[in-house]
Automatic annotation (TrEMBL), chain A:
Keywords: Receptor, Signal. CDD domains: PBP2_Bug_TTT (cd07012). This is Tripartite-type tricarboxylate transporter receptor subunit TctC. The lineage of its organism: Bacteria, Pseudomonadati, Pseudomonadota, Gammaproteobacteria, Oceanospirillales. Residues 1-24 form the signal peptide. Gene3D superfamilies: Bordetella uptake gene, domain 1, Periplasmic binding protein-like II. Belongs to the UPF0065 (bug) family.
From TrEMBL, chain B:
It comes from the Bacteria. It holds the Pfam family TctA. This is Putative tricarboxylic transport membrane protein. InterPro entries: DUF112_TM. Residues 497-520 are annotated as: Disordered.
Amino acid sequence: MKINHLLKKIVLTTSLLLSGVAIASDWTPSGPITLKIGFGPGGATDVIGRVIASAIETNNGWDVIVENKPGGGGVAMLSGLARDKADGTKIGLGVTMATLMNIATRGDSLPFNLDSFDYIGTVVTSPLAVIARADAPFNTFAEFIEQSKANGGYLVGFDGGPQKLIINAINADTGADIVTVSHKSGSEQIQSLLGGQIQAGFGAGAHIEYLKSGDLKMLAVATNVRQPYSPETSSLIEQGFNYSLNPYFYLTAPKGLPENVKAALSAALEEALKSEAVIELIENTMKTEAQNLGPAGTEAELKNSLAMMTKLVADSK
Amino acid sequence: MTDFSVILAGFSDALTLTNMLYVIAGVIVGQFVGAMPGIGPVMTMAIAVPFTFVLNPLPAIGLLIGINKGGLVGGAIPAILINTPGTPDAAATAIDGHPLSKKGKPLKALKMALYSSVTGDTFSDIVLITVAAPLAVIALKMGPVEVFALMVFAFSLISGLIGASVTRGIIATALGLLAATVGLDPEHSTPRFLFGFYDLYDGFPIAAVAIGTLAFAEIIRRLISMTGEIRPAVNFPKDQPREDKRISFKEYWSCKFVLLRGALIGTGIGAVPGMGSTAAAFMSYASTKQSSAQPEKFGKGDIRGIAATESANSSVAGADMMPLLTLGLPGSASSAMLIGAFLIQGIQPGPLLFESQGQLVYGLFGAMLMANLCNFIIGLFGLRIWAKLITAPESLIFSAAMVFCVAGVYLATGGIFGVYIMLIFALIGLVMTALNYPVVVFIIAFFLAPRFELALGQSAAILRGDPLRLVNHPVALVLFGMSVFAVYWLNIRKKNNKPKQPKESKSEPEFNENLQPEEA
């Protein structure tokens, strides 16, 4: 009886161990993997995607082909990916914000939603912050709101729908009367700030040099946690505005990915993020370090962010 | 102020054999892809950017600068030889370049283009190197309201100067703006005119529209007009007298004011992000023609026409670097690629760049000047090859060009969808030309439209919807006033010129301003 029990245990452990090994290494793609990037060639997302692809090629010996599918901040890429076969040979690299914004505002007209995909992991989150000129008479976002009220509404730049939503929601909450001014990028907002055309704006990394040069200062970080490059700056949430934006770069695949494939891809991503080239590139382009939430964490992050975005859409009306 | 020793160290960094080889490679590739209709330097740079990650900063950027500058020269080659601009900014060069080539002097036209291009490029590089910082400060004062007014002025000039009548020019501008409304709006990110095509989220792909209207339409026209007999694309006598194959210094020098005006216009336009070299080339061409004593000579192979356009479109490239280096703002698609390359090298354009990376910046300037020299020398050799190549049967040349267009658009837009868009716009180009509407005005409006719409929205927010607040923006007011005056005045001028035209057109063919079909 005892021996029987022991045998059972041994068999069980060995099979578990074996299956564990199988998850980590036994899957090999049936052909080359296509990595679809939701942005055009030559940009930061494109280069990060390509360097990760080449790291995976070196580490795992798989062929990874990179394809650019620009359009709508990733919507065009995800629309195609949702229809692809879930065998691990088609994966996509996107950025959360624009996609979530689209699902939150016009989800019924999109050919996909968050459940159309399986999630492999995240790469990095961009260090989004609210910034102003260094000589501005306010130092925190709360002070900015007070003065905006007193001065009949300040101008704030934005370069994406979610940033505008946050400002609108804060307007609705506080009556700050802020007017939003559309821009194409963080760099353009910096230009408008320095030229005195707007009073505050959003920076996603390009502003860090200007903090060092003493031209700009940060009023708050827009992510839900503080940033390593400026640990003394508190977040919007800490300052009493219950909103945050966490623009994650993430890897995804069509829904229905077998568990072992998902695990293998996730392990490959984790391994790639440890490569020298990827670490250096992320430091160079994003001024921060890689951050992988893993398959479950990514899915949870996207669902949370979508809830936040839906709340923002409702609050900003 | 940067220390002189840093400047010297930077320049001597640039002058290494490795850098030189990368710059030369870039220029050769750039001239080649520039000369291929459909495959442009922007796409080539996009492909090259990820590879530059493994290089050191200076060779990496030298390579990309080489491609960009090579493309400036290359784009003019097919514009002159087969009336099909290799890059959109060379569209204006075709106006006088192609007629000169048809007169049997393709080498003369090509050389004038090369000299003008290198002259304009070097001029703006020197402006960049010497006065980038103060100019950047002025550019900073150009807020959205001023940029909007500047665009209105550019539209009124271009629609007034190019084409048969001001009305047709304005209609073409409006059509260009309309075509650009497809995609997400800049203010609320609302999708417009998608009809269920998610590929249109970012609007019609620029590459597909430009190649369709400018290159593909012309190729179709030439293929249609083929008679079946085998003949070379360009005919010129073997034993040509020397002066028909070269540009004498006297000829070059006679264009000095034209070149200078082109370079100044190009540098000014380039310093404002988002205006672009195509608009600069046409503005320079139009103002040269307006101020000339014999405007009727233009459009029939006047070297001044080539000088005006090539000096202007090439001088945008150097000036483009001002907002790029000082503010991190790309003024064009190719400088957006350069920013990408800067970032992956860990170089952050911005206020600290000259202080923290002074040596690298001056190395970059050295590489730019080196690229100009390489462009000139390689261009001189290359032009002969292109001029030889063009004696091949036209059926071969144009069908090859067709394949390049399709392949180029497929690559640039990421699929067959872009090719369909290109075909649609080729058709639009053919119809517009047939009805005598200026296609180039349409395409310039399309290029500038996203910026225009953005500036409109920004201005509305900054003025809080109250036009009376414009009094706080005197520069914008002056530009608006000039726009109204330009349309009014140009309209009168065009009308005054009209009665003469029927007489002239009997003796001489009509101006080839809109890349019109020609009787071969």
